[in-house]
Structure formats: C-alpha cells, structure tokens
Amino acid sequence: MNIKLKLLGVVVLLGAAAGAGYFALHLAPSGAPPQDGVMTGFLPAAPAPMATVGFIDEDGKDTDLSRFKGKVTLVNLWATWCSPCIKEMPSLERLKTARESDHFTVATISEDVQGATAVEAFFTKNGLAGLPRYLDPKNAFSRAFKLNGLPTTLLLDAEGREVGRFEGIADWDGPEALRLVDWYIAHPG
Q1: Which residues touch 59 (CB under 8 Å, ≥6 apart)?
Q2: In terms of domains, do 114 and 173 share one?
Q3: Same structural domain for residues 179 and 140?
Q4: How far apart are the first and last CA of the chain?
Q5: Is the pLDDT of residue 79 over 80?
Q6: In the chain, is it the N or the C terminus that has fewer CB atoms within a 10 Å radius of its CB?
Q7: What is the number of domains present in the chain?
Q8: Peptide bond into 151 cis (omega under 30)
Q9: Which of 44-48, 80-84, 176-180 is predicted with the least confidence, judged by mean pLDDT?
Q10: 3-state DSSP of 19-64
Q11: Domain span at residue 159?
Q12: What integer is the mean pLDDT of 30-56?
C-alpha cells in the first residue's frame, strides 16, 4: 500500500479521535449540566445541605441562605480589594438582569471586613445598581465553605443545596455560563 495512503488513513483516524474527544469533553451527557468553554472549571457536586451561615442583608439585618429557598441561586463571594472580583461584577449584574425570575436569582456577598461602608462606595463608584449588597464582614462563609480564594461562586438548587462551585473569575453572562445556569433552572432540584 502506498505510504501516502497510509499516512492519510492515520490522519483521518487521528482527526476522528480528536473530534470524538472534543464532543466527549464539551457536550453534556443526558442528564448532566453542560460544561464548555470557561465553565469546564465549574465543579459539580452531589446536592449537599448548606452549612447554616448567617450574613447581613441590605437592611442591616441578620439573614441566611434559606431566604433564597425555592429559587436556583448563584451566590458570588467577593471583596472590593479583589481585582478579579471587581472585573467579574458587571457580568453578574447582567446575568441577574437577564435571568432574574421566580425561579432564579443572583446573590453577591461581600467578604470585606469594612462592611457596608466599603461595599456602598464600591457599588456607587462602579454603577452597580442591580446587585444586592449582602455582607459577611466576619468572613464566616470563607471558613464554613472552605474557600480557596475570591471570587468563588456557589450554585444552589431550589432546595438550597450546593450543586457546584466555580473558583475564580468567570463571564457570568457569556454563552457557556448562561447554558449552565439555564440547565439548573430547568432542573431545580
């Protein structure tokens, strides 16, 4: 057999194998959330009850994650001194605007020890009017959920259980994130 034909056959087989590998990595199997692009960094987890950790709501009152029960909730933990957090916040606001409903919400919880003063100044300076201003000045979330750093985003199902997390910056209104969020909205728990 001609060497050129053999090489062509090998190239075709390698191309087919690479294509199959791509689809295995980027197309979700039936029943699994889609994870492509930047969302390959999303770490799905078996739904697990969340630790009861309190934080402060926009009215300065104590609350906890049970306030979101009944909605799929994207909980972003951030701080005003965190450069990736600052860059990510506008995409979280756009995600909230695009998907906020009776079935989904976005919650941003600041880990700033300066509390409301630092957060209000940050939101005003950056024109972020559409995001909630929840506070965790004692960093209870960082300890309870063993965060490796900020930003960290937890995804909760409608029962309030963590179903996955993303550590680091993401484009939350990009097509990959929207597919992931939409999947969880369609499969609330």
Answers
A1: none
A2: yes
A3: yes
A4: 58
A5: yes
A6: N
A7: 2
A8: yes
A9: 44-48
A10: HHHHHHHHCCCCCCCCCCHHHHHCEEEEEEECCCCEEECCCCCEEE
A11: 34-186
A12: 91
